[in-house]
Amino acid sequence: MLETIRKRLTLLFSGTFLLLLILILLGVYFTTARLLDQTELNQLKSVSDRELFERIEHGEDRLIRDPIFFQILDSDGAERYARLPDDLSKKTIDRFVSSDTETQKLELEDRHFLLYQRNTDENGLIVLMKDISATEDTLQRLIAMLFGITVLSTLVLMGISYVLAGRSVLPVQQAFDRQRRFTSDASHELRTPLTILYSGIELLETEPLSTEGKTILSDLKAETASMQYLVSDLLLLAREGHPGPMSSLDLSTLVTQTTDRFRHTVVGRTLHLDVAPGLLVKGDSNQLIRLLTIFLENAVAYSDADIEVTLQQTPSDVRLMIADQGIGIPPENQDKVFERFFRGDHARHGSGTGLGLAIARSIAEAHGATILLESTLHQGTRFTILFPTP
């Protein structure tokens, strides 16, 4: 459980750091792109402000250096001078001239251009066009570099976050270990006197007693048995469902035999069994029997109708389903039923410790399984346990 918390904290820490890093890198990229674009535009504006175009007719167009191209239009829109790329269509430049935009980016095959236009003093128009392929290539390289930084930083941040998360849960782990040792020790210490008490009650039952005495003795025996059951549950919880030796076992046979034994304790209803043969899982047979028994006991306690037990194979897992047609679980309680000592409406079953489903979840987690709950009030409940395939 604490390892799960550590992983979640790792994701939280690394996700937060990574988000901040991405925001910073995005800021770097867009700021750099804006500066480069502004530098290119300033160069075009500088060229257009030199009033060199009046001297073009005197052969001084060499002052407009490549890769800057230009077009000069008079007040009637007629072209006076032009030096444009050979692969640039007239329609493309005409669309830009007729638009209201001052600048525009254009891509011709594998080259990129920046277009800029302004009015002249004679109500004409100057159009400048600069090859900015080198700038775009720089931005592409910047993207690749920032992506590499992001990937590398993600790995480093996850490692750092895992260490920090480990230090964060260390006090919790220590407190949890102390609580588990206390519960385990207390459970062990209680088992012996409870066993002696139960044996003494059984011995007293052989003695001649009044009717009232027999009733009191019967109540004491029942309460002692309940205490023994509670102590066993606490001991199992203290071990966090830690299984014994794990081995490959036939879950189909285990479910069939456990359900058949449980069938004899059910009166007035039917246990429907649908088990696919030969389904194997890796686990502890004793704990898996305890897991199934918990769900069967709950189904019997909360339902007077038939119970269905189904075991089937899917492409991703082995699914064990226990369904009843009982009172159901209210939606507000469905997230709480796996908590220790939580008991909802238990008027139907009278006694209970509220530990059964907590134990079931602990056993399932120890086997790498997941428990799903589907319940509708006054219609029934279905528990589905998803076992990983071995």
Automatic annotation (TrEMBL):
Keywords: ATP-binding, Kinase, Membrane, Nucleotide-binding, Phosphoprotein, Transferase, Transmembrane, Transmembrane helix, Two-component regulatory system. Residues 185-390 form the Histidine kinase domain. The chain crosses the membrane at residues 9-30, 142-165. Its EC number is 2.7.13.3. It comes from the Bacteria. It is found in: Membrane. It catalyses: ATP + protein L-histidine = ADP + protein N-phospho-L-histidine. One of its GO terms (molecular function) is kinase activity. This is histidine kinase. It comes from Exiguobacterium antarcticum.
